[in-house]
Amino acid sequence: MAEPQRKKWSENYPRWFDWVIGEAEVYDYGRYPVKGMGVWMPYGFQLRKKIIGLMREILDRLGHEEVLFPLLIPEDLLRRESEHVKGFEAEVYWVTHGGRRPLDVKLALRPTSETSITYMETFWIKSYKQLPKKYYQVVSIFRYETKATRPMIRLREVTTFKEAHTVHSNFEDAERQVLEAVEAYKEFFDRLAIPYVISRRPEWDKFAGALYTIAFDTVMPDGRKLQIGTVHNLGQNFTKAFDFRIQLADESLDHPWQTSYGISDRVVATVISLHGDDRGLVLPPNVAPIQVVIVPIPAKDEEDMKLVKELVEQVRRALETAGIRVKVDEREEMRPGAKFYYWELRGVPVRIEIGAKEAREGVLTIHRRDTLEKRTIPAENVVVEVRRLFDEIYQNLYERAWKYLRERIKRTADLEEAKEWVENRRGVVEVPWCGREECALKLEEELGAEAMGTPWPFEKAEGEVCPVCGRKAITWMRYSKSY
Amino acid sequence: MAEPQRKKWSENYPRWFDWVIGEAEVYDYGRYPVKGMGVWMPYGFQLRKKIIGLMREILDRLGHEEVLFPLLIPEDLLRRESEHVKGFEAEVYWVTHGGRRPLDVKLALRPTSETSITYMETFWIKSYKQLPKKYYQVVSIFRYETKATRPMIRLREVTTFKEAHTVHSNFEDAERQVLEAVEAYKEFFDRLAIPYVISRRPEWDKFAGALYTIAFDTVMPDGRKLQIGTVHNLGQNFTKAFDFRIQLADESLDHPWQTSYGISDRVVATVISLHGDDRGLVLPPNVAPIQVVIVPIPAKDEEDMKLVKELVEQVRRALETAGIRVKVDEREEMRPGAKFYYWELRGVPVRIEIGAKEAREGVLTIHRRDTLEKRTIPAENVVVEVRRLFDEIYQNLYERAWKYLRERIKRTADLEEAKEWVENRRGVVEVPWCGREECALKLEEELGAEAMGTPWPFEKAEGEVCPVCGRKAITWMRYSKSY
Questions:
Q1: Helix (H, G, I), strand (E, B) or coil at A94
Q2: Which residue of B has its CA nearest to A119?
Q3: What CA–CA distances, in Å, run from B241 to A328, A430, B114?
């Protein structure tokens, strides 16, 4: 399989990313006059919609119910769970005025919705018989980030926050739900051909208010780690804080157990970043807003042109009937070469060129975006060939993205090697760990990297010692430069 | 056609509405601890989604492109068009703090998006060749209402605001767009079987910043008028305020023309209110989250029960294959009668009952929600019969809703009659009007009703005189008690 052309992509990834989201009309960033907030443009909106659609399909199939909660959370509600508010209060936007009047109670723009959802669950859920209950919503969340903002990656308005919230009668069922959520996210990322590392976040970096947090991370083209999904076992922390009790099977009353899990705009950023190349986007066929573009090649001869038009129409109809998202680029003012460039930039997986030669011979020139390879196929086979090509493109994206990630994970007990690895932004390094926070924090400093957490599921570090304190290592701690 | 049972519905409509949205699990209102904000529950969310889907289908077909703009609008952007800000500033929510820090610039929660969209259009649109351009988004908007809030009808967070924004090279094309928008909304409301009156809002009640506003109103079960859609010709007001210029065909630079048009959560409220009855929701089949519910009737005989299960499964499969949204209610702890009640409350258009008798004879008992009529059909005809029933239900809802509205519009030059009409909350009254604001305002006071505007398209009031000043009447002015 041909390797993609990735000079600009690899040498200056952040700049490439800014270029591609602007040029391909995905997301307008940096011109809207509020820092950390951008605009989803029509093409980007459709890509985002397809990706959210995939998430909805998976969650709905697993019995989640979609809801929509208010954006504004009154201050006292947000403060109910003390660890939670500590984690968020530095970055909450506050509404203080309605019209010219100061409000009696300050209202937070939701940074996440555990508090408002738990509050309403106290009215809705009374008995273990209603459980498990799984809600989700897709909403904007707001965080007054003090770190440098990045389009789709570190925003002050995260416009695509899918947050799921579940309720369970006991700890074991919440644990089962964590596993279900992890499997759901694996399927989601797999179908987007996005590779991931799953870690249990260290105690000091878990979600504010959770018992523990499982995180999905990936490595971006510049070797930095990006968190792309999290799953939290919330225990009874919120149900106790809201005194949310239900009747159990033995007729006693108790606080139920909860989990929550989320993904964000970052998924779209990752699809763009991991699969793209110097020519622009390379989209997996299942989420490409346009899956096939047909470019008619003008013929001088009138009779030829008629044949071209007929074949174009025939191919378009065949693909549409098969449920494939197809577009014919008939713009007259633009030359074929410019159209090729235009659709390659936008990552359309398959291009079909039809000129006089093709029309006369009843064949098509078919071009795949990922490898830029071209070949000729009989026109009557177009649906089968395009479907086969979609599979091949997906397989190729999946394999090359996973290969990229695997090459960026290094397991070593040698601190020099570990340091060199993260310093050169080569990705994630795994170092033996004794389990003590102080050792991990010390190593964070020494490596100039962030402790991402330990492998999930748990892995023993047999025969290894903690390079900081020399004690027996229990497991591995992952470190990386991170977004 | 049987008339619906509507005692509770007609005698105390507001209470009926609160009851039905709660009992049918559409929208939880009044318990969320911020006034004027409620929660879309799973069933209501699906209904809302289907209704938005219908709107999207129509707008997409007409060449609108969906986008997503930030929620927060900086104060100076909102203030750029002076009439616009005057119209909204009393009811804008302001974000003043990020974390513990006061913000440099106050940020408004969008009350509508003309300002932010026009601002970005200045970057995106440079030439008449790109026009017309039609954008839309479906977002939450916020208005600090001082009037009494009502669920879905007068909210402080309007969660389902579909706002379209278009750009044109000249006045005529903007006028053409107004017509297109009106036709689009007609189709939308027609497909929801919602009747409407179209008025040109009086000068003093047009959208803040518009040249003029065309409004769709309907009459609710209590005789009050509800605005359900508006279309604005914005002229060059915003493009001038933002100094947004484009190149025209003659190479000169000029400010383009704009329109905008919106619908909101109120559409869902209207579908619920106009079609419902004392038993609950009555949903038009095209937007019902569940179109057919199958209730198996338990049989004592084991052999019979096996036959019932087989027929249930066969019917479910046939309907699903035909693309019909079907649910089998297999709950064991609930009796058939309770299930009937449960699904009637939720407005499922068609119920199919299958017991031992039906299973043995290969027939189905089929029940329609709108008229509560039951009949028996051969099981093998189920798809055809259900589809026919959908058509009949839609026709019935459409006709009875339009009949209701037509009976609530009175044209009269007699002020006593007009007064009696609105006082008894019988709907809309049309009175001859000379065209002078002072006469309309005086009549508003006298009638205790609001001037809704004049008929659109324009209608002459031949030979009539203004009942206030005695001058020759130009057209009719509509008055009503309104939400």
A1: strand
A2: B32
A3: 39, 57, 11
Q: Per-residue b/e over B372-391, b at no fewer than 16 CB within 10 Å? A: eeeeebebeebeebbeebbe
- Is ipTM > 0.90 here? yes
Beta bridge partners of A166: A134, A259
Number of other residues whose CB lies within 10 A of the CB of residue B92? 22
- Determine, for residues A95 and B77 on separate chains, whether the beta-carbon distance falls below 8 Å: no
Q: Do A68 and B123 touch (CB under 8 A)?
A: no
Per-residue model confidence as pLDDT tens digits over B62-80:
999 999 999 999 999 999 9
- The beta-carbon neighbor of B120 closest among A28, A92, A99 is A28
Q: What is the least distance, in Å, from the CA of B242 to any CA of chain A?
A: 13
CATH 3.40.50.800 fits B290-389, yes or no: yes
Q: What is the pTM of this model?
A: 0.97
A32: closest chain B residue by CA: B120
* Rounded Cα gap, residues A438 and A444, in angstroms: 10
- Nearest CB among B33, B68, B95 relative to A159 is that of B68
- Domain spans, chain B: 7-275, 290-389, 409-480
Contact A65 B42 (CB under 8 A): yes
**What are B338-366's pLDDT values in tens digits?**
999 999 999 999 999 999 999 999 999 99
Q: Which CATH number fits domain A409-480: 3.30.110.30, 3.90.1570.10, 1.10.510.10, 3.40.50.1970?
A: 3.30.110.30
CB nearest B45 (choices: A67, A97, A109): A67
Pick the CATH number of B7-275 from 3.30.450.40, 3.40.50.720, 3.30.930.10, 3.40.190.10: 3.30.930.10
